[in-house]
């Protein structure tokens, strides 16, 4: 039994030795792997540059010199501008600092410029004022009541003050103060006013006929008068004390030219 085990062991040992020897011989005869070169060599072809024309080369150099000179001048101006800007900024900072340090002073707002209106023509001047004319008229009016302040009118082509009273009007010259007309004095000559019938008769006689539509008593041109209105549109003003026609608006249906028109007539007893 021991002999058998010894033979088996010897056989196994011999087999292992043979296998190891075969592997070792195989490794010894294998060729080494050569490394692949990684460097790539590029062959360059030389470039031949043609020669530059001397005239062109001189022109290029001249322009290059001019460009360099202009660039230097621009850089110098830029430096000077930066210096002036720095100086101005410094002055501004100083002024701002002084303004902040100084006390606040209220500055009055400038008044808007006045717009000059076009000069009006000078008003006419008179020797007698309206107040003086009123005093003169009141002295001549007696107990008559003043109705309104004096107003400028034209009497016989001359300026005058018209002073209206309850019983008539007085006209005072603007230069001399003389009384040009006084209807109150004329009314005083007749103690009582005329009636409406008498005024209608005077108006109808003035027009030479017509149909009376309405009669009113009012002041017209400073005179206490009856206003007699006719159906054709005519109007006749008759003095309430003297019975004379002082103003008339006559409506002519057909005039000399065949057209309808109005004629206004004013009778002033003081023009004579």
TrEMBL record:
It comes from Chloroflexus aurantiacus (strain ATCC 29366 / DSM 635 / J-10-fl). Gene3D superfamilies: 3.10.450.40. Keywords: Coiled coil. This is Propeptide PepSY amd peptidase M4. It comes from the Bacteria. Transmembrane segments: none annotated. Residues 128-181, 193-246 form the PepSY domain. Residues 64-98 form a coiled coil.
